[in-house]
Amino acid sequence: xxxxxxxxxxxxxxxxxxxxxxxxxxxxxxxxxxxxxxxxxxxxxxxxxxxxxxxxxxxxxxxxxxxxxxxxxxxxxxxxxxxxxxxxxxxxxxxxxxxxxxxxxxxxxxxxxxxxxxxxxxxxxxxxxxxxxxxxxxxxxxxxxxxxxxxxxxxxxxxxxxxxxxxxxxxxxxxxxxxxxx
Length: 182
Known about the structure:
The protein is α+β, with helices and mostly antiparallel strands. It folds into two domains: 3-23 and 104-181, Ribosome-recycling factor (Topoisomerase I, Chain A, domain 4, Orthogonal Bundle), CATH 1.10.132.20; 33-99, Gyrase A, domain 2 (2-Layer Sandwich). Helix content is 59%, strand content 17%. The chain is built from five helices and six strands, in the order H-H-E-E-E-E-H-E-E-H-H. It has helices at residues 3-23, 33-36, 73-82, 105-142, 147-181; strands at 39-42, 45-48, 53-59, 62-67, 88-92, 95-99. The strands form two sheets. The chain has a four-stranded antiparallel sheet, covered by helices on one side.
């Protein structure tokens, strides 16, 4: 695998990570990703909620968590309360209903800032990948690569960097719009 292929693969992974991070950022609507990563104490050890229950969205401001083991509904409700997500979990029969309260302007602004912060972190990661690729290319130059070939490859790495940084910014702006319009 060439240096360019490896670089593109790493940058793609950074963008995919950003997409997952942005999914978990709260908007005004209910979204299963909001609670998937909540750790629930079950069978003596913490487990992610998504491995313990099915998560559905029956209404715009409500999640319905149906535990695979009905005995865990109390632990799930407690874990959501302890996660400081600003969500209200209520045990309802063999399920847990999670109400998502509307966000005020300050919360929306904070969530927007969080989107921007995640985007910036991803861009730093992408730039670090660029630096590593350029160092690897310079090592290849010592192995006999021509100066012209080195410059051409460095230019391609920079083009990849620009493309992925722009994509990270666009993802954050899209999520910010989603937060502000709901």
